[in-house]
Write a structure and sequence with these properties.
single chain, alpha/beta, Dihydrodipicolinate Reductase, domain 2, 2 domains, five-stranded mixed β-sheet, about 35% helix, binds 1,4-dihydronicotinamide adenine dinucleotide, binds ligand LZUJQKHR, cytoplasm
Length: about 230
């Protein structure tokens, strides 16, 4: 596959390594919004910055190039991107986290929230830890976890950074040197705490998931998720 890397930072470089190992060719690597011909690529992988992702994605739809996006912090425009994809008969996968481990963790989180919905004595909280260069907080993965809890648990209707309000899931976002990404969901009662946690050891799991998603999407049209790609849950 000929791959365009829209965003050639920490993730773009890791994806390049994994894509080449899997026999693909990188035909575009860019940190700019233009100055390249996207139609050279069979598929585009966008890991850029929050204010560039939407533009990069819709450019791919307009030129008939399937696109994977892992960029976080741009989801105010997600519904618009979905609608444009359908209008242009494009192909699109967005995931706040492409790693297999986190996608399994997403399913565990849903199951646990469903169980906990029946037990009033436990209160939920989320913690995410990332490297200090991260632009957005809370992380996209923490938002996905919180939204799943809200959909499964009767006591919660919103999330917020460090909220103490009833019905609102508090999220703590910490920034420490060199942390690839750690997410923990905790349920605390007066007597104990249950925690499920995912810790990424490097960026390779995210990158491998993104390349697998690109391989899967290549000949399709429509809007999909990692659940479709991995066939889990
Ligand atoms: N969904 C997932 O599995 C994961 C998502 N991410 C997200 O991916 C994004 C990128 O992460 P990193 O590579 O760590 O950041 P980074 O800061 O190392 O790389 C981003 C790159 O985008 C470039 N850029 C700026 N404007 C651009 C434009 N208009 N078009 C294309 N590129 C442009 C920057 O120059 C930079 O090189 C972040 O939003 C992060 O949260 C990161 C890891 C995993
Ligand atoms: O910026 C990062 O590094 C990461 N961002 C994603 C997020 O916001 O959830 C995924 C992963 O945790 C790494």
């Amino acid at each position: 596959m000929k791959i365009a890397l829209l965003g050639y930072g920490k993730m773009g470089k890791t994806i390049e390594k994994i894509a080449i190992q899997r026999g693909h060719t990188i035909v575009i690597k860019t940190n700019d919004e233009d100055g390249y011909d996207i139609t050279q690529a069979d598929v585009a992988i966008d890991f850029s910055v929050p204010n560039a992702a939407f533009f990069n994605i819709i450019k791919c739809f307009k030129h008939g190039v399937p696109v994977i996006s892992g960029t976080t912090g741009w989801l105010d425009n997600f519904k618009k991107a979905k609608a444009l994809c359908e209008e242009e008969n494009g192909a699109f996968i967005y995931a706040s986290n492409f790693s297999l481990g986190v996608n399994i963790f997403f399913e565990l989180n849903k199951q646990l929230a469903k169980m906990m919905s029946k037990i009033e004595s436990y209160k939920v909280s989320l913690e995410e830890i990332h490297h200090t260069q991260k632009l957005d907080a809370p992380s996209g993965t923490a938002i996905t976890l919180a939204e799943s809890i809200i959909s499964e648990h009767d006591s919660y209707s919103d999330w917020s950074l460090l909220s103490k309000k009833e019905n609102t899931i508090p999220i703590s976002a910490k920034r420490l040197d060199d942390v690839s990404g750690t997410h923990a969901v905790s349920y605390t009662s007066n007597t104990d705490t249950i925690t499920i946690e995912h810790e990424a050891h490097s960026r390779e799991g995210f990158a491998l998931g993104a390349v697998i998603a690109a391989e899967w999407l290549q000949d399709k049209t429509g809007v999909y998720t990692m659940k479709d790609v991995l066939n889990i849950g």
